[in-house]
Structure to design on (469 residues):
């Protein structure tokens, strides 16, 4: 009898259906068209105001090529349990919360339940991070997923031999097929360029139901090509990427996700700029970034990023370090192929021109750098802009820099032989906390291990004067 009652109980999958639609990048109208129902019915299903029927489950599974188990779970009971767990937090101890009200909230208002779960999850994570930071300082960041992913890429010098070789093969196949559209077409995938309002805030979306790769038609030519190549990397090179990620055995699943995404981007760049052709062109053109942009139909940042990967055994080129920062000094990407000692904690040195190019957008700035230990590097920096293409889209300006060892700089078109011998060098530090240059007027904080001199009668030109060690 109980089994019969369970089988006849209405099934509500509102939150799960909403997540599925968002993952597919669909509007309610688009999903309604796919399922041959009305948009209002999709909205009712998502709000748990209608149960899902057996026929609707079959339509969802067939249309989006999903396993029935992925969509047939009982979200209402799961939400009720999760919300109940959250509301047992001591933070809510003085509030009377009957179990019936919690069940009603989860069933009748799944959107509110999801918002509550997200807020409590964010609150819990931030509380834990703050506690760990206070307990162990910067060392607590060592297991943070982004940091772990960066360490992995750095240890590999941002070069992955198997992925690069496979990407070069794919690039040749695509070229022989007559281009990416023809290559995809031969595999049953249609390439379409659609306006942003149809793309639902996506630059790239794969419509599994209709086997279509959809690209925002306002993207630049270089961004279009890169997004298409990224899809090819995620599909045709999935096994190669997964093999690298599994071999690394990361401590956290989030790290694996970040690295998988980074490797897909790496593979996309290798498809658009295949190693052999790109390395040869880079050497022949003196690593002229703008000239390489024209040759391969790519952006300044894409070329700069690719230049950090040229470490194929027997075909090595100049090793570069790559950095991308915003106007507030936040580092959003760094890739090390040149042994540059970038600080793991704290801000960078303000004397490095990568922080100054925002004053001259689009202009390439070069600079000779010397670290406190005497190491010298040559730097190329310029601003790059994302979000261009149409009115109303938020544009973000960042700065990217490439740095190579000073002894390699003569191979670059940016350096003349005479300049390499008599270059004016800018002394910089890794970060103020680790830089012992006492005479730096740009210093923001004292270095670790130095005592600030107490002197009420003299003001030095530098922000701090230090007692003798």
């Amino acid at each position: 009898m109980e089994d019969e009652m369970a089988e006849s109980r209405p099934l509500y999958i509102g939150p799960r259906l909403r997540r599925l639609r968002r993952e597919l990048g669909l509007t309610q109208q688009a999903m309604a068209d796919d399922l041959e129902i009305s948009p209002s019915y999709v909205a009712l299903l998502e709000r748990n105001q209608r149960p899902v029927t057996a026929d609707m489950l079959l339509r969802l599974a067939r249309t989006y090529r999903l396993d029935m188990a992925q969509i047939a779970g009982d979200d209402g009971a799961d939400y009720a349990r999760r919300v109940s767990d959250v509301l047992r937090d001591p933070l809510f101890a003085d509030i009377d919360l009957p179990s019936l009200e919690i069940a009603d909230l989860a069933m009748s208002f799944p959107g509110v339940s999801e918002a509550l779960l997200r807020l409590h999850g964010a609150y819990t994570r931030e509380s834990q991070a703050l506690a760990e930071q206070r307990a162990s300082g910067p060392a607590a960041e060592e297991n943070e997923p982004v940091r772990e992913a960066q360490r992995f890429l750095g240890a590999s010098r941002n070069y992955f031999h198997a992925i690069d070789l496979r990407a070069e093969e794919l690039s040749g196949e695509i070229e022989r097929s007559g281009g990416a559209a023809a290559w995809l077409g031969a595999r049953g995938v249609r390439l379409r360029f659609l306006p942003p309002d149809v793309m639902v805030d996506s630059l790239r979306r794969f419509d599994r139901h209709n086997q279509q790769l959809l690209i925002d038609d306002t993207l630049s030519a270089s961004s279009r090509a890169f997004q298409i190549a990224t899809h090819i990397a995620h599909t045709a090179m999935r096994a190669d990427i997964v093999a690298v990620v599994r071999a690394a055995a990361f401590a956290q699943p989030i790290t694996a996700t970040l690295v998988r995404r980074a490797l897909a981007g790496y593979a996309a760049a290798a498809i658009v700029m295949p190693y052999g052709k790109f390395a040869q062109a880079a050497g022949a053109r003196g690593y002229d970034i703008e000239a390489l942009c024209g040759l391969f139909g790519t952006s300044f940042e894409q070329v700069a990023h690719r230049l950090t990967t040229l470490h194929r055994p027997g075909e090595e080129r100049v090793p570069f370090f790559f950095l991308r920062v915003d106007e507030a000094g936040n580092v959003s990407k760094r890739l090390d192929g040149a042994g540059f000692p970038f600080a793991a904690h704290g801000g960078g040195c303000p004397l490095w021109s990568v922080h100054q190019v925002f004053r001259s957008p689009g202009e390439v700035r070069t600079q000779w750098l010397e670290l406190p230990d005497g190491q010298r590097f040559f730097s190329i920096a310029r601003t790059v802009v994302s979000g261009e293409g149409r009115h109303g889209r938020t544009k973000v300006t960042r700065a990217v820099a490439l740095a190579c060892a000073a002894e390699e700089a003569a191979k670059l078109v940016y350096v003349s032989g005479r300049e390499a011998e008599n270059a004016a060098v800018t002394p910089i530090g890794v970060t103020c906390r680790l830089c012992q240059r006492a005479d730096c007027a740009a210093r923001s904080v004292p270095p670790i291990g130095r005592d600030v001199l107490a002197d009420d009668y003299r003001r030095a030109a530098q922000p701090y004067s230090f007692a003798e060690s």
